[in-house]
Amino acid sequence: MLELKSITKKFANKVVLNSVNLRLQRSQILFVLGRSGVGKSVLLKTIVGLIPQDRGEVWINGEKTDPLNEEKMVTVRQKCGLVFQMPALLDSLTLQENLEFGLEGNQKSGLRKYLDWVQLSEGVLSRYPSEVSFGTQKKVSVVRTLLREPQFILFDEPTTGLDPVSREVTNQMIRNVVKESETGCVVVSHDIQSAIELANSIMLLDEGRVVFEGTPEAFRNSDQGLIRSFCKGMVVLDA
Amino acid sequence: MSPIPYEPQIEISHLGFAFSADKTHLLKEINLALRAGDRLGILGPSGSGKSTLLKLVSGLLIPSQGEIRVDGELIKRQGLKQSRSFSQKMAMSFQKGGLLDAYNAWENIDFALAELTDFSESERKERSFHFLKQVGLSGSENKRLKELSGGMLKRLSLARVFALSPSILLLDDPTAGLDPVTADEIVSIIEEYAENRSVILIFASGDLAVSFRLANRLGFLWNGFLTYEQSVYDFKKCDNPAIQQFIRGGLSGPLTEPVYART
User: Fold this and answer.
1) Cα-atom radius of gyration of chain A, to the nearest Å?
2) Which tens digits make up the pLDDT trace of A89-117?
3) What does the mean pLDDT of chain A come to?
4) Is B261 a residue whose pLDDT tops 90?
5) Do B260 and A190 touch (CB under 8 A)?
6) Is B248 on the interface with A (CB under 8 A)?
7) For A26-30, A133-137, A200-204, which range has the lowest pLDDT when averaged over its residues?
């Protein structure tokens, strides 16, 4: 289980995260929604120690992380893979070389399986990032994370800016990965449509605090003002 | 007797476009007529040419074939041959804002006014401040761009469009990357401008919810052709399988995600 206990983070005088708690079991998908600038990405980065929290604790499978111990954080980052919004591949390496970069020999064994999960053919791996579509680059970046056999995957805005077909491809990929690997996923997003379709639970952040936590069903039926505004982002086809 | 109010019109016929002679046409055959009051939303997969179509209408790109007429006047490459009165009719906001980092918020509007209008220096400043207020940016007039959030930058680029009081607004994905709450605020600002004037609005968008709300006509750009419907309702109900797949999601249908980069 991935657990955050009263995480607090300030930048200058602004409290970005104010006693945020979170619990995620394996095989579950948690969507963290919130307006831009509300600290969603900061939350992800505190989990892997890229931004150390001011107060509060991160627990992974019953073990507390220490963001100041860089050596131990390497292990944490293997357990919790972060998938950035942009694919962040190295331009000068082929896709294959990108995937193998920094891997131990025995970590390459799952490659074919993972390519299958994200629906990518092996043939494409001889290409350079610039030769493939953005969607393919994203898939490769997910495979790169999977090769480290994480127990939890943290997605930062996986569907922002994608057209509906690419969004569907991405969501299908997340679904597949969770089903096949039983990882737990935290998805930071403001894509309400995907949240409703994918999430087991939704958490809404506002002004540093968790203002909603519950099922997609409960989210849709809530009469909180901010949630109503968020739901305007949903597509209505029968009117 | 009051003068007949000016009403813009756009006529696009047999429009085709390729980025160079040896490349296939991104746009093959586009025909379209728009009148004042039309708010056309252009939907379509990434890379289908939505931004390119807007740039052609604005004169930033020149057609490979066919023509675009605004109020009967043929569009030529803007800035080089187009008349100043023409530039005043039309204003475009860009997906990434098209703002200048070296200027602060109000100066980004001021410079456009200085280039395209005859307002005096003090009038320009007053106008810049006025339109910043209209988009909810009072108090941010002197801020550098890096101090503004994504939503604020979108507002600023809209304020610059509004300050030119165009009759034709071309907006390239005005809500790209914004959260739904901010997107909804931006849509309200655009609606308010469009409703109070006799304008043509053409916008490209990747956001279905935004498009359904802002448009009164919807087009779908795919494989170089634009299919359009006279109302949002008709668009949702149309039997074009690509459109249905696009608005309902789903992986089975004519639309597929490309594996390789476009060449």
Assistant:
1) 18
2) 999 999 999 999 988 877 888 999 999 99
3) 93
4) no
5) no
6) yes
7) A133-137
Q: CA B162, CA B179: separation in Å to the nearest integer? A: 23
Return the domain boundaries, chain B. Answer: 40-55+87-248
Q: B180: which chain A residues are within 8 Å (Cβ-Cβ)?
A: 190, 192, 229-233
- β-pair partners for B170: B92, B202
Structural domains of chain A, with CATH: 2-91+153-231 (3.40.50.300)
Contact B179 A36 (CB under 8 A): yes
User: Which residues of chain A lie closer than 8 angstroms to B206, CB-CB?
Assistant: 161-163
Is B252 touching A (CB cutoff 8 A)?
A: no
Q: Could you read off the pLDDT of B120-159 as tens digits, one per residue?
A: 999 999 999 999 999 999 999 999 999 998 889 999 999 9
* Single-letter amino acid code for the residue at B139: G
Name the A residues in 115-134 with CB < 8 Å from any B CB.
121, 124, 127, 130-134
The residue type at A211: V
Can you tell me the distance from the alpha carbon of A223 to that of B223, in angstroms, rounded to the nearest whole number? Answer: 42
Cα of B119 to nearest chain A Cα, Å: 36
Across the interface, of B150, B236, B259, the residue whose CB is closest to A132 is B259
User: What sign does the dihedral B185-B190-B193-B195 (CA atoms) show?
Assistant: negative
| Surface of A (29-88) touching B: CB under 8 A | 34-37
Cβ <8 Å between A233 and B249: no
ipTM: 0.84
Q: Output B230-235 pairs: Cβ under 8 A, ≥24 positions apart.
A: B233/A239
3-state secondary structure of B27: strand
Closest in B182, B256, B259 to A136, CB measured: B259
Q: Which fold has domain B40-55+87-248?
A: Rossmann fold (3.40.50)
For B183-202, write each residue's pLDDT tens digit.
999 999 999 999 988 899 99
* pLDDT at residue B5, rounded to an integer: 75
Rounded to an integer, what distance in angstroms lies between the CA atom of residue B250 and that of residue B42? 20
How do the residues of chain A divide into helix, strand and coil, expressed in percent and rounded to 5?
40, 25, 35
Q: What is the pLDDT of residue B80?
A: 47
